[in-house]
Design brief:
CATH topology of chain A: Hypothetical Protein Ychn, Chain: A
Radius of gyration of chain B: 12 Å
Distance between the termini of chain B: 16 Å
Largest interface: A-B, 23 and 25 residues
Order of helices and strands of chain A: EHEEHEEEHE
CATH superfamily of chain A: DsrEFH-like
Number of strands of chain A: 7
Strand content of chain B: 15-25%
Helix content of chain B: 25-40%
Structural class of chain B: alpha/beta
CATH topology of chain B: Hypothetical Protein Ychn, Chain: A
Number of helices of chain A: 3
Number of domains of chain B: 1
Oligomer: heterodimer
Distance between the termini of chain A: 30 Å
Strand order of the largest sheet of chain A: 6-3-2-1-7
CATH superfamily of chain B: DsrEFH-like
Number of helices of chain B: 4
CATH architecture of chain B: 3-Layer(aba) Sandwich
CATH class of chain B: Alpha Beta
Helix content of chain A: 10-25%
Shape of chain A: globular
Number of strands of chain B: 5
Largest sheet of chain B: 5 strands, parallel
CATH architecture of chain A: 3-Layer(aba) Sandwich
Chain lengths: 135, 100
């Protein structure tokens, strides 16, 4: 049995302007196969990645935002969104996609994946990690 | 003159620099991640809302839609245009300054 480490993926960029968010999401999904203790963090413009209602039909880009819904099935169940980043951007939790996961140990109850946390809480979480990736 | 801004105001000073240098009567078009500058209720809203008194501010509709930003969340007075409107603005202005 190999040692389980705490992995944190930090997302700081808006969804469309660069390929980082998509690449980051793919790394998280691939990395999920290694059964580590994984969480994702959305700060700064990264919070826009989770914005509801993204529709790229008119701009001819690929819309990968529905892929975030797959995270729960890959047991990536903790998505931390910084409250201060939301507030600076005039957003609330209601603006974000309703992402959920099913808890095997609780009769497959559907639970929210997104947790709104303060900058202070995030700072403590960051300190706890063994490995941190940035996208 | 037409000014285009394609960077998020939360990540870059492009919008601030543009608004500081744009003459009264200029057209300012927000494109790509620049459309985040059109959002109401943010830490940058006041800066753009004040500028909108002397310049005309536009935002590119397809880029707003791609980012899930509906028109009712924008700063009042900002006009949403399509690609045809972008061409129209580029043609009616004698020069285009891109704040990349």
């Amino acid at each position: 049995m190999s040692e389980t480490k705490k992995f944190m993926y930090i997302n700081r960029r808006p969804p469309c302007g660069t390929v980082y968010p998509l690449e980051g999401l793919e790394v998280v999904l691939i990395g999920a196969a290694f059964e580590q203790e994984v969480c994702m963090v959305f700060i700064s413009d990264g919070v826009f990645q989770l914005k509801q209602g993204q529709d790229t039909i008119d701009s001819g880009m690929k819309n990968f935002s529905p892929t975030y819904r797959a995270l729960g099935d890959y047991e990536v169940t903790r998505l931390y969104v910084e409250r201060e980043s939301l507030e600076e951007r005039g957003l609330t939790e209601a603006d974000l996609m309703p992402l959920t996961w099913e808890d095997e140990d609780d009769d497959w109850a559907e639970k929210p994946s997104i947790q709104i946390v303060s900058r202070t809480q995030l700072s403590d979480l960051l300190e706890e990690q063994d490995v941190v990736f940035n996208f | 003159m037409l000014h285009t801004v394609n960077k998020s105001p939360f990540e870059s000073a492009s919008l601030k620099t543009c608004l500081g240098l744009a003459k009264s009567g200029s057209d300012i078009l927000l494109i790509e991640d620049g459309v985040y500058g059109a959002l109401a209720g943010t830490i940058h809203t006041t800066m753009l809302a004040e500028a909108a008194g002397t310049v005309s501010v536009y935002a590119l509709g397809p880029d707003l839609k791609a980012r899930g930003l509906p028109e009712d969340r924008l700063i009042p007075g900002i006009k949403v245009v399509g690609y045809d409107g972008f061409v129209e603005l580029a043609c009616t202005n004698d020069k285009v300054q891109s704040w990349l």
